[in-house]
Each structure stands twice: as C-alpha cells, then as structure tokens.
Amino acid sequence: MCIRQLKFFTTACLTFPFCPQTFVVNLEMMWTWALWMFPLLCKFGLAALPAKPENISCVYYYRKNLTCTWSPGKETSYTQYTAKRTYAFGKKHDNCTTSSSTSENRASCSFFLPRITIPDNYTIEVEAENGDGVIKSDMTCWRLEDIAKTEPPEIFSVKPVLGIKRMIRIEWIKPELAPVSSDLKYALRFRTVNSTSWMEVNFAKNRKDTNQTTPYGAAGFYRVCRSSAMCGQGVKVLDDWSQEKMGMTEKKATPCGLELWRVLKPTEVDGRRPVRLLWKKARGAPVLEKTLGYNIWYFPENNTNLTETVNTTNQQLELHLGGESYWVSMISYNSLGKSPVTTLRIPAIQEKSFRCIEVMQACLAEDQLVVKWQSSALDVNTWMIEWFPDMDSEHPTLSWESVSQATNWTIQQDKLKPFWCYNISVYPMLHDKVGEPYSIQAYAKEGIPSKGPETKVENIGVKTVTITWKEIPKSERKGIICNYTIFYQAEGGKGFSKTVNSSILQYGLESLKRKTSYTVRVMASTSAGGINGTSINFKTLSFSVFEIILITSLIGGGLLILIILTVAYGLKKPNKLTHLCWPSVPNPAESSIATWHGDDFKDKLNLKESDDSVNTEDRILKPCSTPSDKLVIDKSVVNFGNVLQEMFTDEARTGQENNLGGEKNETLGQCP
C-alpha cells in the first residue's frame, strides 16, 4: 500500500541561478501533474523482484535424468523458475521450466534422456521471474562424470559361515542401473548391535557378477551391515548407503590355516642350501582377521631330535639347511588362538624329482591370461603355479598359487603389468613330493618393441654377405619376438626381404651383384607389430679371395716355370746363355775406323779439331781397361758424326760402292 502526503500551494515561486526570471505555477497545472504521477509512484513503491536463486546443486542419476536444485529464498508472489543449460561441450542449449507459489515451493528441475550423454560439460543458470521482474543466478559449471550417481545396492542376506566361527557372509544385489562396462568398487560398513562406531572395508567385484557374496569376520557376534557401490573405471558413479541388515555369527573362531611354499636356491660352497619359505593365508580366510605372528619349526626327515624353532612376524623366512631332506611346519596365531599346522617337505639335494608335464602353453582369452598344460600322470591332481617378472633384479617379486582338480590356471590381466615378460612355472605335487617344474614365458599384453635390433655386416664377398644382429633387451621387447625380417636393396635397384624365426640371429645373403653398394636393415616383430633397426650400407668385392689367390698362383707359377726353363737351357748350352746375358764388347784399340780414308781423312780430322768449339772432354776417347788384357788406348780425337758425313759425301760423289776391305765393323763401347 502506497501512502503519500502531498502539500500543495496556490502559488509557488521557483528561482533558478541561471534564469533570473521567476515562474509562477498555477494550481490547476500542479493538480494535473499530481494526478498523472500518482499511479506510477504507487507502482514503483509496491514492486518486489524475486529473490536471487543460490546454492545450485546438480546430480546425474545414471541412465535416468539430470536434476538441479537451488535455494529460492523467500517468495511473496507467484514465481516461475527456468533452468538454462548448455551441453554437448557448449554447442547446444535448452531450458527446463518450473513454477512455484507461496503454497508450493518447487525449487528443482530435471533434464531427461536422450539429451544426456556422458562424458560432457554442462553450464547451469537459474532465472527467477515474477510479475515485477526477472533476476538470474550465478553461472555454474558441472562435469557430468563427476556428478553421476546410481541407486544403492540391496542387501538381501547376512548369514554365518558354517564351520568357521565369528564370520558372516553378506550377499547383495548389484544396482540395476550401474555401468555394465566397468567393475564396481564397494564399501561395506558393519558394527556390533551395541556399538556406535562403524568399521569400513573397500573392495572390488567383477562386472559380470550380479549377486555379490563376500565373507567377513571380526570381534563381535551381531552385525548391522550396510553397503555402497561406486564404479572403479571410467565414470565415477557414486551412490548412497543401502538399508541396514542384521546378521549373527557363530560363537568362536580360530585363525585359518596357511598355504606354505618354498624356493630352493643353489647349494653354497660349504654344502649348505638356502631355502626361502613363503606363506600366506589360505583361500577364503577372513579379510579382517589380524595375525600376530608365526611359529616355524623344522628338522631333518630322519632325525626329529634336531628340531629348530623360529618365531617371526614377516611373510617369508630364509633357512640354511643341510643336504638331506627336511620337514618344515608352521602355525599362525592371534588373540583368538592358533591356526591348524601346515607342513611342507624339502627334498634332499641328490633327490630326483618326477616329471609328468609334457607340454604347456599360455594364451589370452578376453581379459584373462590362461595357462594350460598336459600331464602324463593321472594320479597328480594338485599343482603349484609360480610367476614373476623376467627382470635383471636379483630378487624379483615372486607370486604363487595352488590349483587342484584342474590342468589350467587363469589370472586377470590387470593383475599383471602390460608389456612385461613373466616367467610362469607349474610344479606337480603328489602327496608330500614336488615334481619337476615346466616353465614358459608369457605377456599379459604385447606391444611393438621399443627399438629394432642392432645390425652389422660380416664376411663380405663378391656375391655373398653375412648379416648378424643382437637380441633386443628384455626390457624393450614388449612382447615375444616371433620372427625377424631382413630387408636389403641394391643402390638404385629392387628391394628384397627374407624372414627367419626368432632363434636365428644371423643370415647369409646370396646372389648379390659384384662391386655393388647395398642397404640392409632387420625388423623384429611381435604379435602386435614390428619395428626396424638401423640401416647399414656395404659394398660387395670386385674379386674374391679365391680369385686373387688363383691369379697370384698362376702368375707366380708362370714365373717359376720360366726360371726353371732358363736354368735348364743354360745348363744345356752354357756358351749361348753366356753370350746372350753377357755379350762381348768390341775393343776400341783394335778398331780400323781410323784408317778408312788415309791421309785425307786425317787432314780433315785435324781441320775439324781446330774449328770445333765443343768441349774437348766430349770428344776424347777415355781409356777402358778390360780384365783380360789391360789394354791402354791412347787418346784419339775422332768425331764420328763428321766421319760418317764425309764417308757418305764421298760415296755420292764417286758413285762407287766401296767395300771397306771386308773388315768387321766394330762399335766403340762407352766406357764407364
């Protein structure tokens, strides 16, 4: 209700600083303005906008709807709320409208399938509108996978476990709308009837299980249980606690039995043998049962008087035993009592183990690794399986499990590391004896090796070469190498390939071209694919070693034959060989060349000697001495070029053919 007190005057004098004139407003004009402004002033005085929506909260009820709620504040009139949503990662938007009044306050709104997809990011804004105006809330953002929720599981049975005291078995039904594609993680709470404190346990169950069954035990007789479930992979689906259910255990329980195993190590220098004992709770033992310690005693099989006892709180123990066979016994104990005795026989060093496993193989089936084997001993129905990663560490983590009444063993892939090689061994067990193991290697998941093999070239020939490579280290294989492929190609030619099995680490290439450059690389392959090693280049030879030896032998043989023939010829005709090798040199002292033209020749020689400017040392005949007669030749000045020129000039002039008296032509040899 708007109440205004108005005072009017018959005249009003309004004075403005910038206008010196005085205006007089008459009474009629004032009443006209007052009647026109009065409804408008009352309207503004009575207007009340809706309260701003706050505390917006959204929940995605898995496979049902998305519901958002908010705090509307105090409302005085009819108000309509509109929740505005953007989805599909901001590409689409829609609205959800609801209404409320003073008698019915509905501050929530829901979006339904099929316009809800996961994963997705939503923005939610709430708009409140009444007759007086509109007001909007703050913008809120939501990741759909973080706000997903399903209905709680339903507990339908809480019963005692017969034969095992102080333990109950809880059975429940998996939520119907829980994601089918993921395993569920459960949280279980329980307490005694008279207690106010809850004990909580978290664990996972397989996605294929519909009715879940889990045994639990603790310190009370009566239990009030309730459980909750959430998705373990992908979508983080949460839910509320189920309704409580009551059950009762039997009166008293003792610790459950143990499973005992051993790892035999090589004998030491002093003849003693290290034996590592491993143990764990028997299958089906309560999860919450706390063990305080273990008592272990052992003695030689033929002498119980040499019993030794050890107390420990660890899960393993290393003993140093003699060469004979031993018996090892142990128990666990807690505040309720002692467990049944577990015994194991350690064979003697010289004892031979029986063998019955003929073949074993491992394969992948869905999300499990399956190991199967065949046995020739029908009376063996218990087996011990060992597995550990094939690593270079001195003490790898060893896991073990017993199997009865079956010749196969399965393990979930998520319990093994992908791309790791595992050594798996199966031991046959007959009564108190352990047979010879059968071992294989397997991968839970294979991949392409991290790098290719290192390659090198050896024994390069004319048309052949040997390619060798090294094994890829175990840590980089990521799978079992099934084969190697050798790729080679001549420079500018066609490429070829050869495939060999994984046991071969070298291969000889043949039928190559002589004196040709080649490129070669080796690819290692697993079931997931292959990877190439580094490429290397080589060039074939022009001649092989055999060809070089053959050519050398032929040349050397020919020379040897020639020498032999020469020696034989020399022995047969020594004078001819001497004449050929060491021919006779004419004696200049006995030469008749100086008497060919008598006095005329001598005059010309004297005339030529006086006119010739050549060095006299080049025209002087140096004396030569022979070892036979030691002749000394006087110096003679003879110019053989002029002599010959003169001789041919005279013959041309006379036209006569002169015979030089039938004397033997002799040549002056050069003296050293």
Short précis:
With 672 residues, the protein is mainly beta.
Features:
672 residues; mainly beta; Immunoglobulin-like; 8 domains; five-stranded antiparallel beta sheet; 6 helices; 13% helix; flat; disordered N terminus; disordered C terminus
Task: Explain what you see.
There is one protein chain. The chain has 672 residues and is mainly β. The protein folds into 8 domains: 13-46, no CATH class; 54-146, Immunoglobulins (Immunoglobulin-like, Sandwich); 151-248, Immunoglobulin-like (Sandwich), CATH 2.60.40.10; 258-345, Sandwich (Immunoglobulin-like), CATH 2.60.40.10; 357-443, Sandwich (Immunoglobulin-like), CATH 2.60.40.10; 455-539, Sandwich (Immunoglobulin-like); 546-581; 588-654, no CATH class. 13% of the residues lie in helices and 40% in strands. It has 6 helices and 43 strands. It has a 5-stranded mixed β-sheet, with no helix packed on it.
